[in-house]
């Protein structure tokens, strides 16, 4: 009888160990996702220090911030880097804010300089791509990973 008890205990231990191992591998309630990286350029030159926003047709958005070379990596939440598979509207917002929100000429100049643009270029970029409702830029994420080159005019 002692031998059966030991076998049952070993089987129970192995079952629990396997259950705990698989519990850590779950993606939870995430949709089908893809890691997305890329670059942003405006009229051929990299755009540093700007927020890249991906808004899917349905579901929550993802965001990223360009570095000095205009490179970005998208973030879905604190646990997952990437975006939901499918169509996304892409828009850009300044990563730098001023106390007056860009109301003064000096403020607009500082925000533009942080993005490596002139105030006129920043105004042009924001008028074309500055919000979800204004942007015409749409990307389709079909594979994981996805590397994008976003050339803005």
TrEMBL record:
Source organism, top-level taxon: Bacteria
Signal peptide feature range: 1-23
Name the record gives this protein: Carboxypeptidase regulatory-like domain-containing protein
Keywords: Signal
Lineage of source species: Bacteria, Pseudomonadati, Planctomycetota, Planctomycetia, Isosphaerales
